[in-house]
From TrEMBL:
Keywords linked to the UniProt accession: Aminotransferase, Pyridoxal phosphate, Transferase
Name this protein carries in UniProt: 4-aminobutyrate aminotransferase
Family per record: Belongs to the class-III pyridoxal-phosphate-dependent aminotransferase family.
Organism from which the protein derives: Polytolypa hystricis (strain UAMH7299)
Catalytic reaction list: 4-aminobutanoate + 2-oxoglutarate = succinate semialdehyde + L-glutamate
């Protein structure tokens, strides 16, 4: 397997497009000027948005400071990034109460797909169907609306990953992951009993009420170092990104495997990265076969987002899928942040070209809804009320996702994002050549606008971003991450690149 993996991994990296380089400062400047001139005339994807950012005061200034002080008396504001006037935010631009307008490439932590105050979403929000969903919010497991199957089939299931034709809807990303974990555990024990028709024993029933085995078995979900899967109890036990998320919270005895630590540019370190991925695969299989609490499933992000925007090759994920199949372990792909077009594919795991699809794929954020897709009927619990809560998702959010899907198709936004991402990455490559100390380990080539790099003064870069008119986010310890909306265009990229150049200039 090792030799096969090395060969496959080399091929995967070698297929990546070559880096675009510029030889002199003069050449860079002329190309940038030509690009700006050309892109200024491109057809807007979002009508009536600002022509560019406008910063007239400090952030936060008096109006924001007053509102923040009031809010702080009733709500914890210590994680506040900026106060927003959503009534004045449009498209790719976010406004504050003091009249500042920023180009937003953080997009509510990657969760706004079509721009602020999108007219298609506004029309859906004002429809009688939405009004009914909001004021008559159903307990979906017990009292679903008579149109629920149609809503799912024309929306959420219309974009289901290949091979996965069923969905369990949820409220948020953490909820989606936790219900997927439950499905994995129930499936594992159902297999152990001999099938869905085999009844629970009296010992299982009584011991479950005491939180003891065999009713509460000592099973586990394997996650990966630096991964993030949520902040609820089960999802938090698989989150490995930052200690602050986990401190003081009891956790399950579940294992973590190493995630590849790659070197950049990828083209220059293909052999070294292939060895690193092979090492991680071998360790993952060792943990699966040896960990004292049997592993029912693994959960992994296509790109580790909160943990620092960490990438791996398609060959690595193909190898991981082979390991799970060989060891009868389910593969859960967490597409909460990577899904819905941001990487130039509707689902990021489509980049992997897997021979067999993942067992479950979780989603949220840009979908504005949440849940997990699955295909194997045996992943549906053998009895009612085993995978259940009052809401089990929200028809209102499913209607919004349906409109998002329609707009993505109408405007060809997945392909658009792939092209815009290529343009943006080339510009960032230019900056990384000009300012190598400021743009380190640039990553995300061929992954749409899902781009990041490491900065030795990351927090200062984020702060200065607002001063020059951009709202940008970070992740991990040193990474600057870009999470533009799907309606982000090349002229927005030009503004962003110019802004970063202002930030890093001495």
């Amino acid at each position: 397997m090792a030799a096969v993996f090395r060969s496959a991994s080399r091929r995967a990296w070698n297929r990546l497009p070559a880096a675009r380089t510029f030889t002199t400062t003069t050449h860079r400047t002329s190309l940038a000027a030509v690009a700006r001139s050309s892109n200024a005339s491109e057809t807007p994807l979002f009508a009536n948005e600002p022509a560019g950012p406008h910063v007239k005061t400090s952030i936060p200034d008096q109006a924001s400071q007053k509102a923040i002080a009031k809010l702080n008396t009733v709500f914890d504001t210590r994680s506040l990034n900026m106060l927003v006037d959503y009534s004045k935010s449009r498209g790719n631009y976010i406004a504050d109460p003091d009249g500042n307008v920023l180009l937003d490439v953080y997009a509510q932590i990657a969760s706004i797909p079509l721009g602020y105050n999108n007219p298609a979403l506004l029309a859906t929000a004002q429809s009688p169907e939405m009004a009914s969903a909001l004021i008559n919010r159903p307990a979906l497991g017990n009292f679903p609306p008579h149109t629920w199957a149609d809503i799912l089939e024309t929306g959420i299931l219309k974009v289901a990953p290949k091979g996965l034709d069923q969905v369990f809807t949820a409220v948020a990303g953490s909820d989606a992951n936790e219900t997927a974990y439950k499905a994995a555990f129930m499936y594992r024990q159902q297999q152990k009993r001999g099938g869905p028709e085999v009844e629970f024993t009296q010992e299982e029933i009584s011991s479950a009420m005491e939180n003891h085995s065999p009713g509460s078995p000592q099973l586990s979900i394997m996650s990966f170092k630096s991964g993030f899967h949520g902040r609820l109890f089960g999802s938090l036990s698989t989150t490995r990104s930052k200690p602050i998320h986990k401190l003081d919270i009891p956790a399950f005895d579940w294992p973590q495997a190493p995630f590849p630590s790659l070197r950049y540019p990828l083209e220059e370190f293909a052999e070294e990265n292939a060895r690193e991925e092979e090492r991680c695969l071998q360790e993952a299989e060792r943990i699966i076969t040896e960990f004292h609490n049997p592993v029912a499933a693994i959960v992994i992000e296509p790109i580790q987002s909160e943990g620092g925007d960490n990438h791996a090759s398609p060959a690595y994920f193909q190898g991981l899928r082979e390991i799970t199949k060989r060891n009868n372990v389910l593969m859960i792909v967490d597409e909460v942040q990577t899904g819905v077009g941001a990487t130039g594919k509707f689902w990021a795991h489509e980049h992997w070209n897997l021979q067999t699809p993942p067992d479950m794929v979780t989603f949220s954020k840009k979908a504005q809804a949440a849940g997990y897709y699955f295909g194997n009927p045996a992943l549906r619990p053998n009895k009612p009320y085993r995978q259940f809560n009052t809401w089990m998702g929200d028809p209102a959010r499913a209607l919004i996702f349906r409109t998002i899907i329609q707009e993505i198709e109408r405007l060809n936004l997945v392909e658009h994002t792939a092209a815009t991402g290529e343009y943006l990455f080339a510009g960032l490559e230019r900056l990384s050549e000009q300012y190598p100390g400021e743009f380190q380990n640039l990553r995300g080539k061929g992954q749409g606008t899902f781009i990041a790099w490491d900065s030795p003064r990351r927090d200062e870069v984020l702060k200065k971003g607002k001063e020059v008119g951009i709202n940008v986010g970070g992740c991990g310890e040193t990474a600057v991450r870009l999470r533009p909306m799907l309606v982000f265009q090349k002229h927005h990229a030009d503004i962003l690149l110019d802004s970063f150049e202002k930030i890093v200039q001495p």
